[in-house]
Amino acid sequence: xxxxxxxxxxxxxxxxxxxxxxxxxxxxxxxxxxxxxxxxxxxxxxxxxxxxxxxxxxxxxxxxxxxxxxxxxxxxxxxxxxxxxxxxxxxxxxxxxxxxxxxxxxxxxxxxxxxxxxxxxxxxxxxxxxxxxxxxxxxxxxxxxxxxxxxxxxxxxxxxxxxxxxxxxxxxxxxxxxxxxxxxxxxxxxxxxxxxxxxxxxxxxxxxxxxxxxxxxxxxxxxxxxxxxxxxxxxxxxxxxxxxxxxxxxxxxxxxxxxxxxxxxxxxxxxxxxxxxxxxxxxxxxxxxxxxxxxxxxxxxxxxxxxxxxxxxxxxxxxxxxxxxxxxxxxxxxxxxxxxxxxxxxxxxxxxxxxxxxxxxxxxxxxxxxxxxxxxxxxxxxxxxxxxxxxxxxxxxxxxxxxxxxxxxxxxxxxxxxxxxxxxxxxxxxxxxxxxxxxxxxxxxxxxxxxxxxxxxxxxxxxxxxxxxxxxxxxxx
Length: 477
Description:
- It is built from 15 helices and 19 strands.
- By secondary structure, it is an alpha/beta fold.
- The strands form 5 sheets. Strands 13-14-12-11-17-18-19 form a 7-stranded mixed beta sheet, sandwiched between helices.
- A hairpin with a 2-residue loop joins strand 13 and strand 14.
- The mean pLDDT is 93.
- This is FGGY-family carbohydrate kinase.
């Protein structure tokens, strides 16, 4: 096999867009095909989502660069989006999206099963087992299994229902605490409610073309187990190494760092990422979706770039301060009840000044997360990818707000590139993930913080922390 001629059919199902491309094992990427994300539609019917994914696959098969037969199929996508299924893998309810706080009322019950007393942050809204408990309460019985949407789509391709070990790692709890099987037993749930785990960068199974309604030429093509979009994106950014820091800037923001050993930090998710490497960080609820909200509410637009453009036009010397939590916050606060608020607004302020407050508020919220991670001021650059990395002003604003260099990835779609790398590794083209990552990630653009702006944000960060703490104190009383 000539690696230069090999092509992997890679797909990325996001919350706002569905993307696909033919990707070579050395990172060369053909035309990127895009479609509206079926996750943006009301109802979130799993079968309708499958049909949208299959349609894009069929479009890719008709692309000029399509090979006679793919080397593999690799699917990644948004995480914490769950499907409740029966014993045959059929959906029992609409897909539960990432942003739905379903399960938050089960936080105390779940935390108790994990042996946690007091602070239940992270055990309610968005937690898969909390959602499982709420489903059982609502429906009178538990489903046969709960799986991430990506896993269920792979089931439609291969007939095998499994989940990736990285996503499953969220259920591990504290190192000295009970494991997932014991937690499930304490909750009165069978271990089978969680499908078997498969490591990312392994072959999940072979595509069953007739069952999937796809051309016979695809029958038997290997389907790789990829983890969620953040996992794949970190590979495509070249960020997966001890000490490196990343920022996946999309509808929501995902921030993290890597180390050779696990460590516990309040509000942070610690997961095994690759053999011998641990991830610390997690998803924020805030991101480009917040910029899009402001554009819809105040600028007659639906484009995050419109908010940034308005923000950059602000010339006031006393911009308002914004807590940007229009849909609550996940990492590092895990508080679905938080709301957005503007502070120190004056009659002289305009929409441009409010837009600036939102943009700066997002950067300050994410700076707080990086501070919790302990990576501010360490000299390491931030590896940045996602749609936000392509927006004018946004990467530089973050470099200034964080006081650290921002390194922009070389791949136009790092999630697709990372999915292809995982598949190539699973097929033995590369000996491991690190070798695959190093093979395609050479050269990048680095943005450095402007000293005056960095000093400005240091002062604003203290104000932001004070206002946020006051707000948190009020929400807890």
